[in-house]
Amino acid sequence: MAPKQKRSCASRFDALSCCILCTVVGNFLVVLAIAYYKQLQSPTNSFVMSLAVADCLVGLVVMPYSMVRTVEGCWLFGALFCRVHSSLDVMLCTASIFHLSCIAFDRYYAVCNPLVYHLKMSQGRVAFLIVVCWAVPLLISFGPIMLGLHKAGVNMVPMPPEDACVFLVNRVYAVMASLVAFYLPMGVMLAAYWKIYKAAKRQAMQISDSSKKQRHRNAMRRERKAAKTLGIIMGVFLLFWLPFFTVNIVDPFIDYSTAVEVWEFFLWLGYVNSSLNPFLYGFFNRSFRRAFMMIMGCRICLIVTLHTWTWHRPITLLPQISTIVYFV
Fold first, then answer.
1. CB of 194 within 8 A of CB of 104?
2. pTM above 0.90, yes or no
3. 3-state secondary structure 243-304
4. Whether 27 contacts 59, CB under 8 Å
5. Total of domains in the chain
6. Residue 95 belongs to a domain with what CATH number?
7. Of 40, 224, 277, 298, which residue is 20 to 30 A from 83 by alpha carbon distance?
8. What is the chain's alpha carbon radius of gyration, rounded to the nearest angstrom?
9. Residue 267 pLDDT > 50, yes or no?
């Protein structure tokens, strides 16, 4: 390998390694914060914690092998593990997207129907939705992929070499999997966040009609923050996943003519979404930031020593803090 190629491979390896490290560490901090601090344990944060587990697993068991494939340009781990890796990839990324739609659904009820929120989002219903977020991705990934149903009838000339681990899918699987894994959750998120924004705007107008100028300015500030925050959430989600799922659903209909480099680039865009989720759903929240500062300040080490790993009684150290509300 020429020195220039070696430098290029090394730089790609460093960049992708940093992405993996951010994904694992960021999501692990979210899991740790919710597990330890009682005030963070809410219906919304149950989804956030499960989302962080899915994204952390993406960083641990999916991205490292994809990095080797991307940097080396070939698959070094055998045909069987290629299928296992592809199944894990589809399952965990789909689970991550499902959790994002559940968070949007939860926030819709909290903001638009606050009087029935605790009835609609009971512990049992939250647990059921989390099970769905894991079960449906499991069904559309391991079953079809391990049995080879995802590529039944694919006639690509020339066929990719066995050491490439190229994830080819037939038209039926491409359409159905893309609809279930991305387009339906995207529809849920768009509808929920649009209704949340409209509700926030309506509340701001009601406040401004009955209050003085200062309260009117505060209401307008909240409305602008709502629009900005919801726009960031949806913008990041669409920016990092829409290109991949657009190519995924189109490629079988254009005789698999999409270049491998394009596939790899769009796939890593999707992976980056898993590294950004802790910031969007955790780090930007004041309550989480307090918990993170305590963890990073090693206060948690003292807690573990004093309480001898009392997992069954969550430790209360923060002042009373509410769950995630994106525009407050």
1. no
2. no
3. HHHHHHHHHHHHCCCCCHHHHHHHHHHHHHHHHHHHHHHHHCCHHHHHHHHHHHCCHHHHHH
4. yes
5. 1
6. 1.20.1070.10
7. 277
8. 22
9. yes
